[in-house]
Design brief:
Blueprint lengths: L5 E8 L3 H12 L4 E6 L4 E7 L9 E7 L23 H10 L2 E8 L3 H10 L6 E9 L2 E9 L13 E6 L13 E9 L2 H10 L6 E4 L4 E8 L2 E6 L5
Parallel strand pairs: 1-4, 5-8, 9-10
Antiparallel strand pairs: 1-5, 2-3, 3-4, 6-7, 7-8, 9-11, 11-12
Length: about 240
């Protein structure tokens, strides 16, 4: 499962989880499954499998700020900003205009410390490796994840956050959703530099294309036919 770097999950941000669930049903034809809370960052999520032969154990995460969490603006861990740029007002404004959308992706790696060090050799600061967890009905999920103090994504979200799971992967027990991820393409003005960074962490088979505008484009097979999710504004 953790033998090499792979796409782990797609990140869709929503203003609220209710908005995210409604978007999922309207866009993909299915309701997301249950998720949980992230005490470290004051967020919560809902999940559904998009696994395929090409992307084993892949899933889609719909994430939102939890208004009932303590420290709604910042984490208690040294005042860090939330992961995935979730405190960025420009990103929040885009969600208010266009609704939930794909903003980022996460790659699982066998050794997150080593992968982060390889990026540092390219002068890319992917962030501190933090330990995080959340409770599930089956027990405690635990992982290590790269998060910058400013919470920023890099390469306009195209360079993945890195995660190393401890023990059970959350997608192991996810029921089939009727969705499968067919392809993921990263488009960026600095495609060569992005490709070098992905290769450095072991993601040598990621599709990357030069483009004037940055975007993450995920093609999904759904009960409603093929759907393309894009991180481009309004996508």
């Amino acid at each position: 499962m953790h033998d090499r770097a792979r796409l782990d999950h797609l990140v869709v941000m929503a203003g609220t989880l209710a908005e995210g669930a409604a978007w999922c049903e309207a866009t993909l034809g299915v309701l997301p499954g249950a998720g949980g809370e992230h005490p470290l960052f004051g967020t919560h999520n809902r999940l559904l499998s998009v696994a395929s032969d090409v992307f084993p154990l892949a899933y889609l995460e719909i994430i939102a700020i939890n208004p009932e969490a303590a420290g709604a603006r910042q984490t208690s861990a040294g005042g860090l900003k939330r992961w995935f740029d979730m405190d960025d007002e420009a990103l929040r404004a885009q969600l208010r205009r266009h609704g939930p959308r794909l903003i980022h992706w996460v790659a699982r790696v066998p050794d997150v410390q080593d992968a982060a060090a390889r990026l540092a050799m390219l002068e890319i600061d992917r962030g501190e490796v933090l330990r995080a967890n959340r409770m599930t009905p089956a027990g405690l999920l635990e992982w290590q994840i790269t998060v910058r103090p400013d919470g920023r994504r890099l390469f306009d979200g195209c360079l993945p956050t890195l995660i190393e799971w401890a023990g059970v992967h959350p997608a192991t027990d996810m029921p089939p959703s009727g969705l499968t991820l067919r392809s993921l393409t990263l488009r960026h003005p600095r495609a060569a530099a992005l490709g070098e960074a992905c290769t450095a962490v072991g993601l040598a088979d990621v599709a990357i294309a030069p483009d004037v505008h940055a975007s993450i484009d995920a093609v999904l097979a759904t009960p409603r036919g093929e759907v393309v999710l894009s991180s481009a504004e309004g996508g």
